[in-house]
Amino acid sequence: METYFLKYWQNRITVANDKEFTFCLDFSSKEMTFMKDHFFGGKCLIPAVISLELMIEACALLNKKMIWPVLINSFTISRPINVDTDGKTSISINTLLVEKTDEFSRFLVRIRGNKADLTGKVVRKNTIFAEADICLGKHMDNKIGIFSKIDSGYGIKINKYRYYEYFSRTHGPLFRTLTGKFEINCNKNSLVSEFHIGKEDNYFSVRPGLQFILSPRGFDSILQSSTLLSVISASGDNETIYKKLPVRIKNGCFKFPFDSGRKYECHTRLIRDSENEAEISVYIKDDSGCIVGFIENITLQKGMYLAFQRKEIDCYFKNKNLRGEKCIEII
How confident is the model at residue 39 (pLDDT cuts 50, 70, 90)? Predict the structure, then answer.
């Protein structure tokens, strides 16, 4: 088996048999270089995509081989994992084989750790941070027609640096994958984002070149596109709009791994929106037009770290800003 990120950094294996695998992993901002590029509220936040990747890798290790496609029946983030800028924390990952056939294997996975307050004091031990129901080798048909073409709209090109400084200041260089090329429909409920993962997955830790199964940069591009749509399509009349952050995924299927040499399009469509929550469906295709994967439902909830003014959002995603001057390049 390849030297997966998880396999290299895992330690303190506590359970290991044909049906269950439990071990610990230390997150240190000095060794895990990606942590300082994902920053919220004065803390390094372990990205949801890292948690999901570790879970998939744990399934592959217990299965003793990797089988495509990857089917994510569910993935829930119960609470974020925060670490001080120069600190460290430990988590445990428990993986349980619950079903096995000649074609696929199904697993239940949990990530646990100690919950700390803002001062770093542990207030609850052995807390569940994330849970997932994952199948390796099982196909799923899309049931809701999310592969339909985006409604008529317009193209937008925003300088990549300017985009991240305004919309995603919490994301450092390792997570800046969106190219700044977008297409949005006139009703602002569908968005296409272009992204490119490059080879930066190789530099997520001080040990370069470790393998990932489902690229963290690729999957984070999907979540970035979803949060952007939640801002653009925000309902209501409030002038201040808070970015909604992903907390749950249901029915996702990925047929192939992301390719560092290709560009991708992430097609997002709003299913439901309220002041505190949004639901979005997604499909991803590569630059040859091949569908790589889809997610039927991503649930996002209102966060309090990043707020935007509605008039500023309109400036970026309309042809003209408030003074009638061109503020974006229309493709």
Answer: confident
CA 328 to chain CA centroid, nearest Å? 27
CATH 3.10.129.10 boundaries in the chain: 5-136
> Would you call 161 helix, strand, or coil by DSSP?
helix
242 band by pLDDT with thresholds 50, 70 and 90 = confident
Mean pLDDT, the chain, rounded, equals 87
Which residues are within 8 A (CB) of 71 and not within 5 positions of it... i.e. 6 or more apart?
A: 104, 134, 135, 136, 138, 139, 140, 252, 253
Mean pLDDT across the stretch 229-253?
88
Pick the CATH number of 153-330 from 3.20.20.80, 3.30.565.10, 3.20.20.370, 3.10.129.120: 3.10.129.120
Q: Is-contact 52 132, C-beta < 8 A? A: yes
Rounded distance between C-alpha atoms, residue 23 and residue 4, angstroms: 15
- The winner for highest mean pLDDT among 63-72, 80-89, 115-124 is 63-72
Range of lowest pLDDT (76-80, 159-163, 221-225, 324-328):
324-328
Angstrom distance (rounded) from CA 140 to CA 252: 8
Q: Are 258 and 201 in contact (CB under 8 A)?
A: no
The matching CATH number, chosen from 3.90.190.20, 3.20.20.80, 3.40.50.300, 3.10.129.10, for 5-136 is 3.10.129.10
Considering only CA atoms, which of 47, 60, 83, 74 is closest in space to residue 221?
A: 47
* Exposure string for 216-237, b = 16+ CB within 10 A, e = fewer: bbbbbbbbbbbbbbbbbbbeee
**Of 169 and 178, which is predicted with more confidence?**
178
pTM greater than the 0.85 cutoff: yes
- The amino acid at residue 200 is E
Residue range(s) occupied by CATH 3.10.129.120 in the chain? 153-330
